[in-house]
Design a protein that fits this description.
387 residues, 9-stranded antiparallel beta sheet, single chain, 3 domains, Tick-borne Encephalitis virus Glycoprotein, domain 1, Flg_bb/hook_C_dom, alpha+beta, 2 helices, 4-stranded mixed beta sheet
Length: 387
């Protein structure tokens, strides 16, 4: 039987597999986070007809004579280049710019994906469209420990922040050096009490002498604001009536008295109203009182050999013995890209290249089919010799 028949069959099979790979790429041109694949061929066994001969004194050497026995699929390599961004405006949609994979849990198994189309379910758990749970770290008092083992990301629905009473007040501006003793400056101050209610009080400042103003609070507490000869405050801060006043920015220059409150701490009670996701994957809760607090952080994974990952469907990958163990870390650290919220990574399929591959596979299939028909014609001629 002719060897060319079997070579042709192997060529048909290989190009059919190339067609399968190319067709799958084109089918997933709009699949979120999809990474295209490339078929790689290599020749199969070559039969030795004559071995190589060494050069002799009176004759040159001879090269080996071999006949190849066809082609086979050597590997199907993944293309993990960055896909384009599709802006969605949805905070729970995320894409990775750079290296890394999102980590999800399904039936106790860790899986990995570049498709960041996530949503929070009724329990506040961050999940994929198929219900796999996104992994990361939950914050404790606003602090994330990314060195620990990742777990389910759960947004604490209904969480509230207790009121924080005002304890620090910052004063800034100028007390006029030219003011006369007895001159008064009243400064309104808004504070938050221990119940979270906003209160207003007026601090009265009275000029005592050239370098001193006396501060009086409504509760009867009092203190002197002293200035140095160069017009700067003598003390950076002092505590009066249970409040710590930052006076470092006060001055005692000529001109108008325009001292005022520039800042104060304290806040009323607040409930979680929305959230944002930072480029390091931190989920930051925004509360109704205007305060923000870190609630958790998305975990990322990377591998020594991403081409060793196994595709298992649902835009998921599984680690294998050839991918290496998953290296878990936070976005923005060494070996990991950044997270963009409100966007998804589109498929990285290059349609121009895939249509070209389609033509190449088709012509390769046709050429190999000609090997079969030509070999068949030769065999038919041999059969006809008997006639």
């Amino acid at each position: 039987m002719l060897r060319s028949l079997f070579s042709g069959i192997s060529g048909l099979r290989a190009h059919q597999q190339m067609m399968d790979v190319t067709g799958n790429n084109i089918a997933n041109v709009n699949t979120t986070g999809y990474k295209s694949s490339q078929a790689v061929f290599q020749d199969t066994l070559s039969q030795m007809l004559a071995a190589a001969g060494a050069p002799q004194n009176q004759a040159g050497g001879t090269n080996p004579a071999q006949v190849g026995l066809g082609v086979r699929m050597a590997s199907i390599n993944g293309n993990f280049s960055q896909g384009a961004a599709q802006v969605t405006g949805k905070s729970s949609d995320m894409m990775i710019q750079g290296d890394g994979f999102f980590v999800v849990r399904a039936d106790g198994e860790e899986l990995f994906t570049r498709a960041g189309s996530f949503t929070f379910d009724a329990n506040g758990t961050l999940t994929t469209p198929n219900g796999q749970v996104v992994q990361g770290w939950t914050a404790t008092n606003g602090v994330v420990n990314s060195a620990g083992a990742p777990a389910d990301i759960v947004l604490p629905i209904g969480i509230s922040l207790a009121p924080v009473a005002t304890t620090e007040i910052t004063l800034t501006g100028n007390f006029s050096y030219e003011a006369l003793p007895g001159d008064i400056k009243e400064i309104p101050i808004k504070v938050i009490d221990t119940n979270g209610a906003a209160q207003s009080m007026v601090a009265t400042f009275t000029k005592v002498d050239a370098d001193t103003w006396q501060m009086d609070l409504p509760d009867g507490s009092t203190a002197n604001i002293d200035f140095n000869a160069d017009g700067t405050a003598a003390l950076a801060s002092q505590t009066v009536g249970g409040y710590t006043f930052d006076t470092a920015a006060l001055t005692n220059f000529s001109g108008l008295t325009e001292a005022r409150v520039s800042n104060s701490n304290g806040s009323g009670a607040g409930v979680l109203s929305t959230y944002t996701v930072s480029n390091t994957g931190q989920i930051v809760g925004v509360f109704s009182n205007g305060l923000k607090e870190t609630l958790g952080q998305i975990a990322l994974a990377n591998f020594n050999n991403v081409n060793g990952l196994e595709k298992i469907g649902d835009s998921m990958f599984r680690s294998t013995v050839n991918s290496g163990l998953a290296q878990i870390g936070a976005a923005g650290t060494a070996g990991f890209g950044m997270v963009t919220s409100g966007a998804l990574e589109m498929s990285n399929v290059d349609l121009a290249q895939e249509f070209t591959n389609l033509v190449i596979a088709q012509r390769g299939f046709q050429a190999n089919s000609r090997i079969l028909t030509t070999s068949d014609e030769i065999l038919q001629e041999l059969v006809n010799l008997k006639r």
